[in-house]
Amino acid sequence: MTDKMHVKLKVNGENREFLAEPRELLIYALREHLNITGPHVGCDTSHCGACTVTLNGKSVKSCTMFVAQANGAEITTIEGLGNPAALHVLQENFREHHGLQCGFCTPGMITRAAKLLEENPNPTEAEVRFGIAGNICRCTGYQNIVKSILAAADEMNAAKEAAQ
Amino acid sequence: MIPAAFDYYRPTKVEDVIALLEEHGDDARVMAGGHSLIPMMKLRMADIPHLIDLQDVSGLGGISIEGGRIKLGAMVTQHELINHDGLAAAAPILRETALQIADPQVRYMGTIGGNVANGDPGNDMPGLMQCLDAQIELIGPGGTRSVAARDYYEAAYMTDRADDEVLISVSFAVPTGGYAYEKQKRKIGDYATAAAAVQINKNGGQIASASIAMTNLSDVPVWSESAGAALVGTGCDANAVKAAAAAMLGDIDPSEDNRGPVAFKRHVAGIILSRAINRAWERA
Amino acid sequence: MNDMTPERDERAANLKGLGCSRKRVEDARFTQGKGNYVDDIKLPGMLHGDFVRSPYAHARVVSVDKEAALALPGVVAVLTAEDLAPLGLHWMPTLAGDKQMVLADGKVLFQGQEVAFVVAEDRYIAADAVELVEVEYEELPVLTDPFEALKSDVVLREDLAGQTEGAHGPRKHHNHIFTWEQGDETGTNQVIDNADVVATESMYYHRTHPCPLETCGAVASMDAVNGKLTIYGTFQAPHAVRTVVSLISGIEEHNIRVVSPDIGGGFGNKVGVYPGYVCSVVASIVTGRPVKWVEDRMENLMSTAFARDYWMTGKISATKEGKITGLHCQVTADHGGFDACADPTKFPAGFMNICTGSYDIPTAYLSVDGVYTNKAPGGVSYRCSFRVTEAVYFIERMIEVLAIEMDMDAADLRRINFIKKEQFPYQSALGWEYDSGDYHRAWDKVMEAVDYKGLRKEQAERVEAFKRGETRTLMGIGLCHFTEIVGAGPVKNCDILGLGMFDSCEIRIHPTGSAIARLGTISQGQGHATTFAQILATEIGLPADSITIEEGDTDTAPYGLGTYGSRSTPVAGAATAMAGRKIRAKAQMIAAYLLEVHDNDVEFDVDRFVVKGAPERFKTMKEIAFASYNQAIPGLEPGLEAVSYYDPPNMTYPFGAYVCVMDIDVDTGVPEVRRFYALDDCGTRINPMIIEGQIHGGLTEALAVALGQEIAYDEQGNVKTGTLMDFFLPTAWEVPNYETDHTVTPSPHHPIGAKGVGESPHVGGVPCFSNAVHDAFRPFGLRQTNMPHDHWRIWQTANRLGLHD
Q1: Burial class (CB in 10 A: 0-12, 13-18, 19+), C574
Q2: What is the mean pLDDT of residues C577-606?
């Protein structure tokens, strides 16, 4: 065991500090030090995306990042996207279009989709499929996930237009 | 999957990186995006007592297109390569290749330096760098030196880079003519069953020059000089393409894995290369 | 008051009952990251367990030295078989009546087998300690081929040495487990020997794995003060786990509470009992602290229950006109190192005897031999009822092979052999009574929807173009008509470890007209909290939104056998309806009392009881609920509760007709699904949105299995596909959009006519994708090529047919 280091993260808008071994994986640090259990461990080898969080503006797989690497970063997880009183448009649309079943991939999937729509607010179906190809879902066959994301994009764009 | 413990360093100057490498020798490794190294550490196939994170080291980033040359800092990510408009115009084959690497999340983290440096035969950028005749810039205790990508790879995970050297950039002449990066894989996130990087220059209806490199078909990337030569002076007709593919097959040495047996890989290598040549020709 | 009463339709719609696409109540927490999965559970003082696993597929364990591991600060215990033996817990019963080592007892039988269990303060220390446990092995000859195993002198199961009788009858060889025969062997052979046409084929349904996105895990907590053991875990059958733990540990069942929290997908992987569960329990007892064990993905793929691995040889006979007369099926089943199939006791090869499929086959015979090899144990139903995927794959390939033999169109051949609507209930030659079906209607609807004739024409043109050298892409049309058998099952012939496979529902109506219902099942993504409330809403006339559904806690839920084999809707769904009817019966008496009429003079009307012939006189269910708590009604107990334990009279037989159109690049072996049309008939449809979601998911798992997903071993028994790089789980990029359709042929014996649907698309999808690959090469002489149809195997098929020359 090596010495623990002092880790500072800004997670979902809050500054958090804790002691951790450098080798601790970001996913476990979030889940076990900070009790942020939305992101999950699915594959351990960066193939499934269940652990996806947004870190300094990038979608990353937090199972393949040491907490030491993340030290000082700003992180958004599913818990930071919306709240019960004001759900994120994606959260609403995943429910509306049955874009989830067991729910295990959902936090990573929605977090990734949010970043995708931020970068590409008007994606085609193919762009959505390519853009979420780092996230595996075993339940839905993706059809309704894609539908949910496209519907969310429409809704976000309509809201933007209405605001202008 | 939990890695063994290590000491973590996040230096800001490249000299400090070199000093750490000198101090710890074999026990130290540098890490860029970590998407090759971390899974190996988690599987305990790599034991790294001293891990040097390059993310804060100054001078390792940046994309420059100047004086007919493109220079990519080692820490430039695949995501940056894909989204850099100037690069997409100057060397579209980079974007075409990067889009076929891993998946979106991995491309945010994965760097050109990490992809090129380690000699993982599955990586796509080494073959592309050979196709583009890139120079790899290394820094070590004795200063910087440059080595041609075509000379850099020795065997699987064995390169010309010494343990105390760090890859700091790759650079190459702005490519001209038609291009294609063609890759067959089982799914998103997979390494290539076979992949081909092709750049073709056309002059008066004939191929004036051609550069061809293959990925994951030997323990090193394979720049096939003879395949390129087979195209030169032809109108890229079916026979010429066939001859190029045949020449390439003389240079590769694939091994069997879950992607399939050798005969399959050799056949697919020929098909993929033919498609890449035809696409590059159409774009030339 | 009458004027205020909404129309009947509106009142029905307000209930969100049967047949509506009610949005899921589960989604609020899942979309906000507030699911509660086993790895989310954190108890005070909790320790972490991790396994030392065998790198060898067959080896003697000479010694286990745990000193160095125990010396590591933070390590609390290292358990081996020696430590478990005094408690009698070093072996455990499997669901198939065999026994399995919890920790290696003298030898290991597959790569990844559990050898020692390290318990430490955190997961990091545990992982470090695993590296420090020194195990000395002596390698033994490895048997990965069941046919070799049946010839070999090497004895895999030394613990069974000399035992000629197994749990399912005589053993023919020391590596043989059972022979299971169904049907009429002599009669079938006679029919086949004298037939106009006979087609024979052998096929291998490869080994794969359910691989839910969440791996298996448990948190065990033994409270030494009150003697209560609580186990949270990824259990598809929590009550069965409680009973098994009680039987093997000696802890009385009332002192054990098993909780299945949210489960991140099961697909059959979480039916069995794994060494990790047992070790967590033992470690908690030994240390007096809660112990968590969650496996990683490699451990999941290498050591927990696999699926399939059936070598099947068939003979099918027919008249000159194509009427099938007989079917013979012989299976060699590779069960790995222990027989840990999750099948009902009397069915060691599950319901493989549904292999006569959707066809009226008068005579048939099935024989299955189970064999031990040096592979992981399992044989679970991966998104199917027990071995039904294997059965349907077998018959749907045999039909294609017969069509080739007879030079017939495979759609025509199916059509003339379908069981006719008027033949239901239909007695199959292998012993089942199919409840209901209308196969011709479903088939014709699909053929028309896809323009089958047009597709065949296009395909013929493509073949000609290919022969002229104008294209290198072939087109395959995959067909499948499947009949499933789900909803195990009647207790008279279905049990697991002696536990009858009924299921249950308990309902409590609250005074203000809302309710809670608890079931013996457990959702793993199927949306039970949504759909069971819909069943109840229609039965008891309270809005689904006012009904909470709870599952998975054995302290509160009634006993049930859990969720797998598409049994939740057929069995627990029936229990729910029946419990609802008990509520309604009592409500009728209360309503009659309140309305001052005879019980028989009121009738149920959506959400109320009305006086017959005077609908303006009524009591709503909400009013009745309140009355049941605040009125002393002569002859009636207060309250409004009911419980139903439902033992189904028969299985249900969902069916469907699928077509897949696939383009295949002959040079690279890359297939592309151009179109997939899926018509499902699952009887009464509870929630069309959820049904459609289940179809999409099941088809995608079918695509994966057919086109690349496998657990492959090398000759030394090393797992070659241990990570998601090599174990094929398709991403959104590899998956097509599916077209869905349906017919409705209710089950006559189910209270609401529902049959279950979650597994149909997988069962029907695999042969449909596979048949598409085969069909593309049929014009060039292909009869049979084994799955998975990954790029290189498709390429190899083309190559063997001379298509690269």
Answers
A1: buried
A2: 97
Residue C496: what residue type?
I
The domains of chain B, with CATH numbers, are 7-53 (3.30.43.10), 63-172 (3.30.465.10), 180-283 (3.30.390.50)
Rounded Cα distance, A2 and C465, in Å: 67
- Domains of chain C in sequence order: 2-35+503-646 (3.30.365.10), 38-140+215-263+270-303 (3.90.1170.50), 306-488+651-800 (3.30.365.10)
- Residue holding tokens 């050109």? B112
Instruction: List residues in chain B touching A: CB distance below 8 A.
Output: 1-8, 10, 34-35, 38-39, 41-43, 51, 53, 55, 79, 102-106, 108-109, 188-189
Note the helical H segments in C550-672. Answer: 574-595, 621-630
Query: pLDDT tens for residues C259-291?
Result: 999 999 999 999 989 999 999 999 999 999 999
Chain C interface mutation, best of A19, A89, A143, A148, highest count of C Cβ atoms under 10 Å: A143
Tell me the shortest Cα–Cα distance from C732 to chain B, in angstroms.
9
For residues C25 and C548, give the distance between their C-alpha atoms in angstroms, rounded to a whole number: 9
Beta-carbon contacts of C168 under 8 Å, excluding residues fewer than 6 positions away, are C97, C177, C178, C180, C348, C370
Q: What is the pLDDT of residues C77-86, one digit of tens each?
A: 999 999 999 9
C485-533 pLDDT, tens digit each: 999 879 998 988 888 999 999 999 999 999 999 999 999 999 999 999 9
Partner residue facing A22 (CB), from B8, B109, B188: B8
Look up residue B100 and give its two tokens: 């076929």
> Up-side HSE of residue C237: CA atoms within 13 Å toward CB?
29
Are the beta carbons of B246 and B142 closer than 8 angstroms?
Answer: no
B104 touches chain C (CB under 8 A): no
- The arithmetic mean of pLDDT across residues B96-118, rounded, is 98
How much is the average pLDDT of B84-103?
97
Is the minimum CB–CB distance between B186 and chain C shorter than 8 Å?
Answer: yes
CA C755/CA C694 separation, integer angstroms: 14
User: Distance of alpha carbon C318 from its chain centroid, rounded?
Assistant: 33
- What is the model's pLDDT at position A1? 52
A 53-82 residues with CB below 8 A of B? 58-61, 64-66, 68-69, 71
A to C CB pairs, distance under 8 Å: 187
pLDDT at res. A2: 63
Residue C3 has pLDDT above 80, yes or no: no
Active site residues of C: 236, 383-384, 759
- Using a CB-CB distance cutoff of 8 angstroms, which residues of chain C are in contact with residue A149? none
pLDDT in tens, C386-408: 999 999 999 999 999 999 999 99
Compute the average pLDDT of residues C60-75. Answer: 98
Average pLDDT of chain A?
A: 97
The model's pTM: 0.97
pLDDT tens digits along A85-97: 999 999 999 999 9
Q: Strand ranges (DSSP E) for C321-425?
A: 324-336, 363-372, 378-380
Q: Nearest CB to B267: which of C712, C790, C795?
A: C795
Residue in B2, B39, B79 nearest the CB of A45? B39
User: Which of C709, C683, C693 lies closest to C766 in space, CA to CA?
Assistant: C709
- Write down all domains in chain A, each with its CATH number in brackets: 5-80 (3.10.20.30), 89-158 (1.10.150.120)
* CA–centroid distance for C147 within its chain: 27
Q: Are C47 and C283 within 8 A, CB to CB?
A: yes
Cis, peptide link before residue B59, omega less than 30° from 0: no
More confident residue, C565 or A69: A69
Q: How far does chain A reach from its first CA to its final CA, in angstroms?
A: 56
From chain B, the residues in CB contact with C128 under 8 A are 2, 4-5
